[in-house]
Amino acid sequence: MLGAALAGAAVFSATAQTGAPLKTGVDATFAPHAMVKLGGGLQGFNIELGEELAKREGRKLEIEGTEFSGLVPGLNAKKYDFILAPVTVTPERAKAMLFTEGYLDTDYTFVIKKGTAPIAALEELKGKTIAVNKGSAYENWAKDNAQKYGFSFDVYGTNADAVQAVQSGRAFANLAGNTVAGWAAKQNPAVQTSYTVKTGLVWALAFRADDKAGRDAASMALKCMKQDGTVARLAEKWFGAKPDAGTTAVKIAPGHGVPGLDGYDATPVTLKCA
Questions:
Q1: Which of 101, 189, 239, 250 is the most exposed place for a label (fewest CB within 10 A)?
Q2: Coil, helix or strand for 238?
Q3: What's the rounded Cα separation, in Å, for the pair 55 and 60?
Q4: Could you tell me the CA-to-CA distances from 239 to 34, 182, 203, 246 in Å, in that order?
């Protein structure tokens, strides 16, 4: 997974130098990031991201599909070298794990019926009904903001059902993660994405707290993949839209990790990409 050399820092871990396979895990039910192929195997944005990173380090990648709740324990038990599944970087998690810089922003995006005027401001939701997935962060957002913006919301067992509510006219919009919303619109010509609520949070690759060399090697390769447009191309392929300049899929952090959080190494990195 990972790539070329580091300038002024550890280059690769001992395992990386031996060419041992990189072992990782994903939640294989989280489309379009990781999902089972009809013919067997896994596909998705994160699958291709991991495969490209491994290729750049000259190593094989072994991916296990499992429940998300088992990924961090598996990492700490050294079952996995890193977590390939999307992990939202929070201050609490940054105290327990090392992260690469982010590879995608994790925001909230509205999905509306195709041909509907785009949502320009949250105030336009007044008097409308929003459909959200039960137990999700989007349901929590709806609870916290319904009174402020004057909308009501209905809760559904799956996000697919919430999108169907938009299609049928039972709801004006569905609120979901930006990548899931993009995937829904890409797969379903009856809907389109609209207004995005920025969270300021990112997804990044997670490593054990004692594996700085592994983290830094992955970080270097990720920077190179941003520089040559690979991350942006994968995002456009799986989410249906080219990332804007300045977004996390494009912007390269000056050091290793997520700036402003524990584990960030602010030492300026000189890119050395194969």
A1: 189
A2: helix
A3: 7
A4: 13, 5, 15, 17
List Cα–Cα distances, 274 to 95, 127, 254, in angstroms.
Answer: 32, 55, 19
Asked whether the CA dihedral 116, 133, 89, 82 is positive or negative, the reply is negative
CB 223 within 8 Å of CB 252 = yes
Return d(Cα 183, Cα 177) in angstroms, integer: 10
pLDDT computed for residue 19 by the predictor: 76
Q: What integer is the mean pLDDT of 171-193?
A: 96
The pLDDT of 206-223, averaged and rounded, is: 96
The pLDDT tens digits for 118-149 are 999 999 999 999 999 998 999 999 999 999 99
Backbone angles phi, psi at 184, to 5 degrees: -60, -45
Average pLDDT for residues 65-78, to the nearest whole number? 94
Sign of CA dihedral 112, 238, 23, 29: positive
**Burial label, 214 (beta-carbon count in 10 A; 0-12, 13-18, 19+):** buried
DSSP of 174-190? EEEEHHHHHHHHHH-TT
Cα 232–Cα 22–Cα 233 angle in degrees, nearest 5: 10
Q: Are 215 and 98 in contact (CB under 8 A)?
A: yes
200/190 Cα distance (integer angstroms): 29
Mean pLDDT for all residues in the chain: 91
